[in-house]
Amino acid sequence: MAEFGIMSRGWRRKVLGLALLASAPALLGATDFTGRFEQRVLAAHNRERLALGIEPLQWDPALASSARAWAAHLSASGAFQHAPERATDPQGENLWAGTRGYYGLEAMVDGWVREKRYYRPGTFPNNSTTGRVEDVGHYTQLVWRQTRRVGCALASSAGEDVLVCRYSEAGNYMGERPF
Fold first, then answer.
1. Which of 44, 49, 67, 78 shows its CA 20 to 30 Å from the CA of 28?
2. How far apart (Å, rounded) are the C-alpha atoms in residues 82 and 68?
3. Which strand (E) or helix (H) includes residue 164?
4. What are the backbone dihedrals phi and psi of residue 146, each rounded to the nearest 5 degrees, phi first?
5. What is this structure's pTM?
6. pLDDT tens digits for 151-163?
7. b/e for 90-128, b at 16 or more Cβ within 10 A?
8. Pick from 3, 163, 151, 140: which is nearest to 72 by CA?
9. How much of the chain is helix, strand and coil, in % rounded to 5?
10. Helix (H, G, I), strand (E, B) or coil at 147
11. Which residues pair with 162 in a beta bridge?
12. CA trace torsion 156, 161, 167, 171 (10° rounding)
């Protein structure tokens, strides 16, 4: 029995585990503890990247601003399509849409991460076990090794939430390996 003020080994592990869990957003790349949206989306991306041994992404306010404008456009128009390609400073882009208020941010990003079930190692676009790049393209962008920054935004219409994430350096280049 532990004396007052001295923790047993099991309790010490629990306390350390809780401390690690509380600090996970900072360890996974969040820039502060006040930006809950930023923190959660960034952590959802970086969990997968760190599991693969890939450098975590950093939040980029300019990419988030760009994503915000496109998310607002998609939400207002009801369209669901990628933004036109940028001739200078190309950005990668992942889109997600679903029932308003039903999905958490982590579930939205996890929709992209779950594409890894169809991923196979190799050069892009020959990375899909189904033969369809559409089945892995969001995942490969999320884990693209040369990508260092991300910015995301969420917009809502009456019935739908739309998440747009922009990435720099863009990924999914023909003939290159994602990681």
1. 67
2. 13
3. strand 160-168
4. -80, -10
5. 0.80
6. 999 999 999 999 9
7. ebbbbbbbeeeeebebeebbebbbebbebbeeeebbebb
8. 163
9. 40, 15, 40
10. coil
11. 97, 155
12. -140
Q: Which of the four pLDDT bands, split at 50, 70 and 90, describes residue 35?
A: low
The token pair that represents 99 in the structure block: 């029932």
Say yes or no to pLDDT of 25 above 70.
Answer: no
Q: Which tokens go with 101?
A: 């208020």
Distance CA 179, CA 170 (A): 13
Residues in the chain, total:
179
Is 27's pLDDT higher than 50?
A: no
Q: What's the pLDDT at 88? A: 83
Q: Are strands 149-156 and 92-99 parallel, antiparallel or unpaired?
A: unpaired
Show the tokens assigned to 88: 């200078």
- And the tokens for 137? 């393209």
Rg (C-alpha) for the chain, rounded Å, is 19
- What contacts 39, CB < 8 A, 6 or more positions away? 25, 30, 32, 33
End-to-end CA distance of the chain: 50
Give the rounded distance of the alpha carbon of 132 from its chain centre.
21
